[in-house]
Target: Putative 2-aminoadipate transaminase
Amino acid sequence: MAAFDFAPLLNSGLPAPAARWTGLAKYSFVGGNNDPGAVPVDALRAAADAVLAREGRALATYGLAHGPQGYRPLRDFLASKLSRDAGMSARADDIMILSGSLQGLDLVNQALLTRGDTVLVEQDNYQGTLTRLARLGVKTIGIPLDGDGMRTDALATVLADLKDRGIRPKYIYTIPTVQNPTGTIMPENRRAELLWLSRAYGVPVFEDDCYADLIWEGRRPRAIHGMSDHGGVIHLGSFSKSVAPALRVGFLVAPWEIMSVLLALKTDAGSGALEQMVLAEYCKPHFATHVPQLVRGLRAKLGTLIEALDAEFGTAAEFVPPKGGIFLWVKLPDQVDAMKLSQAALKRGVSINPGPEWSTDAAHSRSRLRLCFASPSHQEIRDGIAVLAEVCRHEFGVPLRSANVEHSSAGE
Amino acid sequence: MAAFDFAPLLNSGLPAPAARWTGLAKYSFVGGNNDPGAVPVDALRAAADAVLAREGRALATYGLAHGPQGYRPLRDFLASKLSRDAGMSARADDIMILSGSLQGLDLVNQALLTRGDTVLVEQDNYQGTLTRLARLGVKTIGIPLDGDGMRTDALATVLADLKDRGIRPKYIYTIPTVQNPTGTIMPENRRAELLWLSRAYGVPVFEDDCYADLIWEGRRPRAIHGMSDHGGVIHLGSFSKSVAPALRVGFLVAPWEIMSVLLALKTDAGSGALEQMVLAEYCKPHFATHVPQLVRGLRAKLGTLIEALDAEFGTAAEFVPPKGGIFLWVKLPDQVDAMKLSQAALKRGVSINPGPEWSTDAAHSRSRLRLCFASPSHQEIRDGIAVLAEVCRHEFGVPLRSANVEHSSAGE
Model:
């Protein structure tokens, strides 16, 4: 009997079907994966045991009867953390827990965006944001970055130009605190300029602060949300980078006017309660000491990656060391096509994120790539970068052999 | 300074903004909440501890590196459970784990439905399905039910009529095993008829089997998916009813042709891993003994609810006892407007689901209501139904006082 044919029933404009999962590459520098050794397993076990013993029966009720904004103790923890670290004055009632911060992107987009709308984003950007905007048929204007993040002078020019043309963008999306992929941190004076532009043009700021806990120097600037006095900022955060990405728990902070709309759109019957319970129980006593320890380990891995790139690529790999986070944004010589490099490298067991998938500017990002250094071990970083250099040399003639030779001599 | 005004930026056609959460009613008969006493807290604690100790470090990687279909041991458990209980021959590769079965509704709808499309559903139905279809602008045709679930004779008539008019519905959505809200179970011969119609008209079956574990008699009919030989069935299930609703873990079984499309649409970076891990660890040794125990408790609560309705409403409350599940679907006299009753009852601390929110037929459901008996205690069921009867009498003159007097005498 012929199998049922779904094809004629499918909507048009769907993304390409998924391929079968074949596992991670041997040397995986992709995604936002973190250091397995840094997962606080024993403390999470203790937290799970304590909170289940105390409140496990509440799992019989959707959302633990804490309402659609999520588990109250987790929101209480966040309110105090965001006040202490980010200068935000959010109360628990201003916070909603999400099934990962990606759900926040989807909810905000559902509330604000229609095909043909315009949004402003940093030119080099998080792929998950760019693909969402593309699928929605939204016009995405990339604002160039410098060492201090999104350039507000360029933003001002674009906003003025759009206003002249009668276009009011729906939001300015920014990752101001450890930008993805560039690793920059926007200083407070530039945050103030951005807020001034937001108010002047009536365009809200969508602040994605997912990496804000992972800063080498420890102290972070105030969140844009915390500096705002006009309420036009939607703030997004996550535990994926600070505790563990496979836990799907993010959060959003926003005025009730927009929060109430997002809550009406969140029709998932609540985010996973056990993960919220365990996180709250874990974070209250441990978060403040866990994060600096995690960050030290990440910084050491960045050191290893930079050494490996210097050794294997020499001057062929250009980069500015990030001020925190888990990514290095690397520029290779112009002849390197990063899309082709990523495919060739994958065949040799090395996965990388090619620049064009992380940018609004195809030419600018053509020879760039994003390397996650948190997930592979120090040895995997060294070995993986050595293979990547070999593949790059074979495909594009760079780095020159000499870089490698220097490395060999130095190692003897 | 004036607060930022989001209103001009919002999309049109959004649902009404959420109201502030004010907690559950004192006597809550709404939603799919379950019995707090039946949550297997100690076994979940042991499962959490064991699986975190063994695999906790994997939380550093999105999806535990098990791929977008979810935690492999949970899919292995499901493959064996579905084979044993539901006669399905799904392998782990045919199963995707969801963040609750609602995500399955959203993914399937995203893949198949466009404004103006037609779908067929059971006339009395799950509210979450009906509101989703309404928001998508889909034409939803309700097929009448009898004691054996969706009437396939009526389905055949509707399909033939639609075909005459050149309309091919996108799917037939059914809850065949403990239908929500009527509590019926479709026998296998009718399932075979439904499959015959599905093939004859080229319309896939979307089988929502969320309540299928909760059956008084234990044995369930084979799933429609298990009886199909043409692959035109998408099967949906959940742990919300069998273990705990606040855990957001559901699953979907479908041929790769449609599964691969749904996976491409699932852009949430994986469903919560800790909940999947704990469930797999718990279910493998405990599921088969936990469920009959849970079911015995639910059936006892149904007994209490039926006694309370008989005592307080007498003949004014008509119903057919369900064959399983957590709901009773009650018909009150025609003068009762269930929407008004639900509002008046809420003021007295009793929450109920009014029929019109659970049906495609406003007239048929006007005086009906759905009562969840799993969540309140036996005493809360008795007290809540007494208050509901009082409110109903005050608002609509039924039940007559005599029913209550009989109850009082009987109780002395």
